């Protein structure tokens, strides 16, 4: 049974990756290009294509960085026009960058490492999610109480091409289990679909990120969370990735994008309610046919859960500094995690995967002005 499950999982991953890449290449053929505009005056903007690592918009990075950056004018201040495409997870987002369908993507660091090991010339240029966001959760009456109880169990993951599956394998391995033999991974998506799979017994446990759980908890559902060991401390998740070619040719445009995004993230940390309202303006589909007033409280809680993964755990917004920085020890732990999870087979040297050269200029903004603007947004 395990052999067939592994073959099925492998085929599913290949199928998802192939479909995602084909769709993204089609998008690029339809004009998703991202060459900077020629100089032509103060209102001319450079165009940048951004790949979001999820198929459906949600109150997370696309709100806290893109929607706020667009609505609050941070992109226009940097003379940028940012176009968004959706992808089915981090692997597909990195594929979009590698294929030229997108210029930049916030993708799971493991997906960036895996691509780099395969010779794909992608590099991380700025951190985003700095606090480990992935958790294992069960229903309160579940008999699963510790990581070792996962042996023989079915784990619900967002998709087999997502960081969710990578986390599930690494979690099992950290517990001393054989991720290939002792657990089964089943794609269940997020939200109501994931909850239904858990409640119906199709899966025994979920492997989701904190923001996804908050979305479900807003409906009144309760979860019991399994502990993450110290092995998951200091591991990086979503990280901005580009190709080496884009980094060479569009360094200034990328710097401006990062600066606008980090301003937007600071704004969101100060006033998540205002950030969520910006999200509705940028992505009306977030409302799902309802009025903003009926959704904003729950959606703001969900966005706040995501923001907590992307800002320092101590201090207030006025203390936040060094946006996007990732230290060598963090990269060492991230590489080790990615290798343990089976996504890479050997260590990838940090200089090959990371270039923090844009961050000094990306941090060249007045945080007090951003904070004041956020507070004034009401």
Helix and strand layout, with pairings?
Layout: H1 2-29, E1 46-52, H2 61-71, H3 74-77, E2 80-86, H4 90-99, E3 105-108, H5 109-117, E4 122-127, E5 134-138, E6 153-157, H6 163-174, E7 183-187, H7 191-199, E8 205-209, H8 210-217, E9 224-226, E10 238-243, H9 244-249, H10 251-270, H11 272-282, H12 292-310, H13 328-340, H14 350-353, H15 359-362, H16 367-376
Parallel strand pairs: 1-2, 6-7, 6-8
Antiparallel strand pairs: 3-10, 4-10, 5-8, 5-9
Helix pairs in contact: 1-4, 2-10, 2-11, 5-13, 8-12, 10-11, 10-16, 11-12
Give a quick set of tags describing it.
single chain; 378 residues; alpha/beta; 5-stranded mixed beta sheet; 3-stranded antiparallel beta sheet; 16 helices; 10 strands; 14% strand; globular; disordered N terminus
Q: Tell me about the largest β-sheet.
A: 5 strands, mixed
Envelope shape: globular
Structure classification = alpha/beta
What is the radius of gyration?
20 Å
The DSSP helix count reads 16
**What is the count of β-strands?**
10
| Main β-sheet, spatial strand arrangement | 7-6-8-5-9
Beta percentage is 5-15%
- The ordered string of helix (H) and strand (E) elements is HEHHEHEHEEEHEHEHEEHHHHHHHH
- Averaged pLDDT: 89
Helicity range: 40-55%
Q: Give me the oligomer status.
A: single chain
């Amino acid at each position: 049974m395990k052999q067939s499950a592994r073959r099925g999982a492998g085929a599913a991953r290949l199928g998802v990756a192939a479909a995602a890449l084909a769709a993204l290449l089609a998008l690029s053929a339809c004009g998703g290009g991202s060459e900077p505009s020629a100089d032509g005056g103060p209102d001319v903007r450079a165009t940048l294509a951004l790949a979001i690592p999820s198929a459906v918009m949600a109150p997370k990075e696309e709100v806290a960085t893109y929607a706020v950056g667009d609505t609050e004018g941070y992109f226009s201040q940097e003379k940028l026009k940012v176009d968004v495409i959706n992808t089915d997870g981090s692997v597909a987002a990195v594929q979009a960058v590698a294929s030229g369908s997108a210029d930049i993507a916030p993708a799971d660091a493991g997906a960036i490492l895996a691509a780099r090991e395969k010779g794909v010339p992608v590099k991380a240029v700025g951190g985003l999610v700095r606090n480990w966001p992935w958790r294992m959760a069960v229903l309160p009456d579940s008999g699963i109480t510790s990581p070792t109880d996962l042996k023989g169990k079915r784990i619900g993951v967002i998709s087999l091409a997502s960081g969710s599956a990578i986390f599930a394998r690494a979690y099992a391995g950290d517990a001393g289990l054989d991720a290939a033999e002792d657990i089964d991974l089943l794609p269940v998506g997020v939200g109501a679909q994931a909850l239904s799979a858990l409640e119906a017994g199709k899966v025994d446990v979920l492997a989701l990120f904190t923001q996804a759980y908050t979305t479900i908890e807003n409906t009144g559902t309760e979860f019991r969370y399994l502990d993450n060991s110290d092995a998951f401390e200091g591991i990086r998740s979503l990280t901005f990735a580009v190709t080496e070619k884009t980094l060479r040719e569009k360094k200034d445009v990328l710097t401006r994008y990062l600066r606008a995004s980090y301003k937007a993230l600071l704004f969101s940390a100060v006033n998540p309610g205002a950030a969520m309202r910006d999200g509705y303006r940028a992505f009306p589909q977030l409302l799902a046919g309802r009025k903003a007033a009926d959704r904003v409280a729950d959606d703001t809680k969900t966005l706040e859960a995501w923001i907590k993964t992307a800002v320092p755990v101590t201090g207030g917004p006025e203390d936040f500094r060094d946006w996007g920085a990732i230290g060598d020890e963090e990269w060492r732990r991230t590489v080790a995690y990615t290798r343990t999870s089976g996504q890479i087979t050997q260590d990838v040297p940090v200089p090959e995967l990371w270039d923090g050269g844009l961050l000094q200029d990306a941090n060249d903004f007045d945080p007090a002005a951003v904070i004041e603007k956020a507070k004034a947004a009401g």
